[in-house]
Amino acid sequence: MDLLSEAAIFATQRHHGQVRDGEFPLPYITHPMDVLAKVRYIGQVTEEPVLCAAVLHDVVEECGVKFAEIQSLFGDRVEELVRMLTRREPSAEEVAGMNKDEIWKLRSEWMLGEIRDTMDPQAQTIKLADRLSNLQEALRTRTGKKLDRYFVQTQEILKIIPRKTNKSLWDSVKKLLPS
């Protein structure tokens, strides 16, 4: 079996039992598979490590998979990409005394910093596909302030990631934003 098939099976097994947000939610694995499809078919990416990382991008955050396991099973480059894409979450001490809006702002600032400071162009390509998938989902499941904040955050992502990183994905994200 090729590495990408193994990565897809691994992600499916690890995300088993998880579901997406919203009414009549789909199994969570539909999101990593959607990101994979967007990287491949919109982004025109064919490099196997990038495709593997696309389908595995949430297994550390959402499933508690260790980076060492990803490295052992899928190699150094896949592990490196997944590491770049895995968000650091604030500890209880770091958010002590903060309200939900303040916590959201802190998490958003950290994410934007990670995109700017630690992601290489291949990781940024996956991040664009991830944002495109999540933005399409947000348009179905979020309203009001939550959706507006997501739009603003997405605009900031597009300011950080140069369009030349992956024009097709960048343009696809941009098209979903209000003018």
Which helices and strands, and how do they pair?
Elements: H1 3-14, H2 30-42, H3 48-56, H4 59-63, H5 67-74, H6 76-85, H7 92-95, H8 100-117, H9 121-141, H10 144-160, H11 167-175
Helix content percent band: over 70%
Kindly give the count of domains: 1
The CATH architecture name reads Orthogonal Bundle
Q: Spell the H/E element sequence.
A: HHHHHHHHHHH
Poorly predicted runs: none
Q: Count the helices. How many?
A: 11
The CATH fourth-level homologous superfamily: Hypothetical protein af1432
Note the beta-strand portion.
under 5%
Summarize the main sheet.
none
**Quantity of strands, as a count:** 0
Mean pLDDT: 95
Which class of secondary structure composition applies to the elements? mainly alpha
What is the terminal separation in angstroms?
Answer: 45 Å
What CATH calls the topology is Hypothetical protein af1432
Query: How large, in whole angstroms, is the Cα Rg?
Result: 16 Å
How would you describe the shape? Answer: globular
Q: Regarding CATH, which class? A: Mainly Alpha
What can you see in these coordinates?
There is one protein chain. This protein is 70% helix and 0% strand. The N and C termini lie far apart (45 Å). It is an all-alpha fold. It is globular and about 45 Å long. The chain has a single domain, classed as Hypothetical protein af1432, CATH 1.10.3210.10. Helix 1 (3-14) packs parallel to helix 3 (48-56) and helix 3 crosses helix 6 (76-85). The chain has helices at residues 3-14, 30-42, 48-56, 59-63, 67-74, 76-85, 92-95, 100-117, 121-141, 144-160, 167-175. The chain has 11 helices and no strands. The longest helix is centred in the last third of the chain and has 21 residues, at 121-141.
